[in-house]
Specification:
This protein is mainly beta. It has four helices and 13 strands. The protein has one domain: SOS response associated peptidase-like (hypothetical protein yedk fold), CATH 3.90.1680. The protein has helices at residues 11-18, 89-94, 171-175, 182-188; strands spanning 5-7, 21-22, 32-35, 40-45, 54-60, 76-78, 96-101, 103-110, 113-121, 127-135, 142-150, 161-163, 197-201. Strands 2, 4, 5, 6, 7, 10, 11 and 12 form an eight-stranded mixed β-sheet that branches. Strands 3-1-8-9-13 form a five-stranded antiparallel β-sheet, with no helix packed on it. The protein is globular. The two termini are 21 Å apart. It comes from Spiribacter curvatus.
């Protein structure tokens, strides 16, 4: 799963990295070392073309307008079912987005409790999760979810699932609105090579959502 992540890259740096323009005047509220569900996060949408992406905000908790106030608001969507699920299939076909991050946190069961780990790409300071969005009554008017898949590489030693991290060359294809079917998307979109992932144990301070500083991603003895 992906229930906590880090985006300490500033929004203007994220925008420059993929040539995106900003849709909202104020995006710094989506920045942080300890990003939790139930808040606005940075998201990247297709603009007038996939080559002209737009950086905006989305509420992390997927509840489309048609679903109703009592419907669930999942933060993740399983890759295995996302194309067929009634809840996600329309967004998978027509409303895909990128969710930028520097890395994510996962908790590994141990004999003395759960040890938090930080996972990122060893050779890239910024990564992009495959995400979905929908129109929402929740401000800022969009809601989103992060697609997850079975864990690969070093992430598999920590937790059975991980966010679907896109290979850099697949970013434009993921936003391409002309790709609407699962076979077409799978042919054009690649995941990150798991050999590029790295991970280390971090302080249990990250367990508290109120904690938010650079020391949260520093390694500690596991």
């Amino acid at each position: 799963m992906c229930g906590r992540f880090d985006l300490h890259a500033r929004p203007d740096g994220v925008a420059r990295s993929i040539g995106a323009t900003a849709a909202e005047p104020e995006l710094t509220s989506a920045w942080g070392y300890n990003i939790t569900p139930g808040r606005s996060i940075l998201t990247v949408y297709a603009g007038s073309s996939p080559q002209e992406p737009v950086l905006g905000l989305g509420w992390w908790g997927f509840r489309p307008q048609w679903a109703g106030d009592d419907a669930p608001a999942p933060i993740n969507a399983r890759a295995e079912k996302v194309a067929s699920s009634r809840y996600f299939r329309d967004s998978f076909a027509h409303r895909r987005c990128l969710i930028p991050a520097n890395g994510w946190f996962e908790w590994q069961p141990t004999s003395s409790g759960k040890q938090p780990w930080y996972v990122s790409a060893a050779d890239a300071p910024l990564i992009f999760y495959a995400g979905l969005w929908a129109d929402s009554d929740q401000a800022p008017g969009r809601c989103c979810a992060i697609i997850t898949e079975p864990a690969r590489g070093i992430a598999e030693t920590i937790h059975p699932r991980m966010p679907l991290v896109l290979a850099p060359e697949a970013i434009t294809a993921w936003l391409d609105p002309s790709l609407t079917t699962r076979p077409a998307i799978r042919r054009s979109v690649q995941r990150i090579d798991p050999a590029r992932l790295t991970a280390w144990p971090v302080s249990s301070r990250v367990n508290r959502p109120s904690e938010d500083d650079a020391t949260l991603i520093e390694p500690v003895e596991g």
